[in-house]
Amino acid sequence: MCGIVGALAQRNVSEILLEGLRRLEYRGYDSAGVCLLDSDGQLQLRKSRGKVADLEARLAGSPAAGRLGIAHTRWATHGAPSDDNSHPHMSGDIALVHNGIIENYRALRTQLEEQGYQFASDTDTEVVVHLIHSLVAGGRNLQAAVTAATQQLDGAYALGVISAAEPDTLICARSGSPLVIGIGIEENFIASDPLALRQVTDRFIYLEEGDIAEITTGGIAVRDRSGEEVSRPVKKLNGSYDAADKGRYRHYMQKEIFEQPQVVEATLAGRIGDKSVLAQALGARANEILPEVQQVQIVACGTSYHAGLVARYWLEDWAGVPCSVEVASEIRYRKAAVRPGTLFVTISQSGETADTLAALRQAKELGYLASLTICNVPNSSLVRESELSLMTEAGPEIGVASTKAFTTQLVALQLFCIALARINGLPAAREAELVDALHKLPDLMEQFTGLDSRVQVTSEAFAEKIHTLFLGRGVEYPIALEGALKLKEISYIHAEAYPAGELKHGPLALVDGDMPVVVVAPNDELLGKLKSNLQEVRARGGELFVFASPEAGFESESGLTVIEVPDAPESLAPILYTVPLQLLSYHVALLKGTDVDQPRNLAKSVTVE
Ligand code: AGP
Predict the structure, then answer these.
(1) Residue of 77, 64, 78 whose CA lies nearest to 33
(2) Which residue, by CA, sits nearest to atom 7 of ligand 1?
(3) Distance from C-alpha of 100 to C-alpha of 111, rounded to nearest angstrom
């Protein structure tokens, strides 16, 4: 999705802006631009379709410098990727960058065209800069004009605005799209993600919905939607994680797959004892709320939704608590019937996914017991707006394809499910068994990442294929869904996942020698049923690739390749079997030569609807 960086300092900020854009590249984008106010008081605009490196090349040919500037990476929504549609957009001596979607842009455009404004792009964003310009022309200063303009906007926005007439002012505003202010020493910054500014500061103000901030060389003034000046807390980010560092790995995705043993351990740390999930694992408020929970509604998107589907099996099996799981973009547009005592759970890596956030906001009107978010980004919108939060400790995830975020979500969900199950009568011996398995998880994760070279060999059978099928049963069905999503996301091979028992109800018609069928086959109570389903595939000439431990009793033969995985406790199987499927998609993408970390058309943080 689009990314914003801005800076006001006593030094040239062009390199700070470019470094910020580089750090936002992981979010997915198709063009980039920068606008700096130079020492002659002229706005210098440079923008380019393509990568930040293309913008840098343009700047090398036509340098620009200044101590006030804004920059942007664009992920096209209105208007194709092009130089003209890239941000910043300008109107006279005002320049603006925008994340989000202005829903009433057509009406505003007509109104502005009637006033004589000419449009240089097809974007929704350009109306905002002309609107601000018209308000400044009417006598307002920049801050007052941005405030008045936002009152006319429907939709979502994070804005960064500068004007040649006010060389010591940077204005920013947010509603529906994230924005932070980074605080330096006699210099301040804005960004859509703190990661963009970690090279210059570790202190941040997280703007709230409707906030408008005026950043001057003298300080920062934040006003809320009603125009009242408000004080927002300054948060210090811990850790020295350098997102720009791939270390010895070729891609972020590869690095993130191999980090899983450590981040899983970090997610468990301080949350489990020898035989039980610790009372403080979910926080003091949770201990008050969880005993009231009668049902659970889980809401998420994409990979995070798959984590929710896995949790449903655990919740109903271990806690006996009914659970529904729904994608956020659907639940937010239907009238959900809410039973008393229903806990609303969101799952999100970024904590900023527009649909999930909108579903949470709507849930607050619908009588849910309380809200819990399982999230990877402290201070994100979902964390700030939920009553309870359980953080995954995955660290920043840069690859667009979610890997370590997913497995740490499963770990956090397992802690939540065990805690709720204990309240609902889970025998202590069973809890001890589940917790004992969790203690073994980091080591087992290490062993599963050790399947890399075996999976690499297997990937060769997929690189030339057009379609694939993923099968699982029970709690492994969501893992098959996740495996298929990973493959399609980064290799662009069409992949479908089915519960294996559904094959004969339709998808079996697709099976032939050109359709590899990937099977997740842990040694569980459904194994016998699964084996019968696989016979149906073999009988139609389908080629099977089965991930199974030796105990499952598979042997490779013509048309059946067994990728042997370590034996593991049943409760951990969904977490562990995810790893070889991630590796499979990674190696297939390598063979196909696709952009592993920034697959086409996708964005990391989906902050628009
Ligand atoms: C995962 O590989 C995807 N890139 C995507 O499905 C993602 O999980 C989804 O957009 C939800 O994002 P979130 O976890 O940040 O809310």
Answers:
(1) 64
(2) 302
(3) 21
Say if ligand 1 is within 6 A of residue 402 CB.
Answer: yes
Residue pair 25/52 in contact by the 8 Å Cβ criterion: yes
Structure tokens at 348: 């999100």
Q: Which residue has the tokens 């099928």?
A: 469
Q: Six-digit token pair at 168?
A: 């010591």
Which residues belong to the active site?
A: 2, 604
Distance CA 489, CA 495 (A): 9
Residues 286-310: tens digit of each pLDDT: 989 999 999 999 999 999 999 999 9
Phi then psi for 67, rounded to 5 degrees? -100, 0
The answer, yes or no, to whether any atom of ligand 1 lies below 6 A from the CB of 356, is: yes
CA distance 270 to 134: 56
Cα(68)–Cα(39) distance, integer angstroms: 10
The first and second tokens of residue 306, run together, are: 């798959």
374 CB near ligand 1 (under 6 Å): no
Q: How far apart are CA 104 and CA 127, in angstroms?
A: 10
Q: Which of 349, 380, 381, 490 has the most ligand 1 atoms within 8 A of CB, as the residue to mutate?
A: 349
CB 28 within 8 A of CB 489: no
Closest among 154, 101, 153, 158 to 131, alpha carbons compared:
153
User: One-letter amino acid identity for 10?
Assistant: Q
Residue 231 is encoded by which pair of tokens? Answer: 């004080």
**């910020």: which residue's tokens?**
20
Contact 162, 143 (CB under 8 A): no
Give me the half-sphere count of Cα atoms (radius 13 Å) on the Cβ side of residue 606. Answer: 21
Predicted pLDDT of residue 242: 55
Q: pLDDT tens-digit profile of 457-507?
A: 999 999 999 999 999 999 999 999 999 999 999 999 999 999 988 988 988
User: What token pair was written down for 492?
Assistant: 């662009």
Phi-psi bin for 315: left (phi > 0), alpha (psi -120 to 50), beta? alpha
Is the minimum distance from the CB of 582 to ligand 1 under 6 angstroms?
A: no
- What's the gap in Å between 256 CA and the centre of ligand 1? 15
The answer to whether the CB of 435 is under 6 A from ligand 1 is no
Which residues are CB-neighbours of 286 under 8 A, at least 6 positions away?
Answer: 372, 388, 419
> 295-300 and 342-348: which strand pairing?
parallel
- Both tokens of residue 290? 């969880």
Looking at residues 42-67, what average pLDDT do you find?
95
Cα(555)–Cα(550) distance, integer angstroms: 9
Which residues on neighbouring strands pair with residue 6, listed in sequence order?
Answer: 70, 190
Q: Respond yes or no on whether the N-terminal peptide bond of residue 88 is cis (omega within 30° of 0).
A: yes
What are the structure tokens assigned to 547, written together? Answer: 């991930």
Identify whether the C-beta of residue 582 lies closer than 8 Å to the C-beta of residue 452: no
Beta bridge partners of 324: 297
CA 108 to centroid of ligand 1, rounded, Å: 33
Distance 75 CA to ligand 1 centre (A): 16
Nearest-angstrom CA–CA distance, 115 and 124: 17
